[in-house]
Amino acid sequence: MNLLLCSISTLKGLYDISAVEVGQHFYWRIGGLQVHAQVLITSWIVIAILLGSSIVAVRNPQTIPSDGQNFFEYVLEFIRDVSKTQIGEEYGPWVPFIGTLFLFIFVSNWSGALFPWKIIQLPHGELAAPTNDINTTVALALLTSIAYFYAGLSKKGLSYFVKYIEPTPILLPINILEDFTKPLSLSFRLFGNILADELVVVVLVSLVPSVVPIPVMLLGLFTSGIQALIFATLAGAYIGESLEGHH
Question: TM segments (predicted)?
Answer without folding.
Answer: 35-58, 94-114, 134-153, 190-212
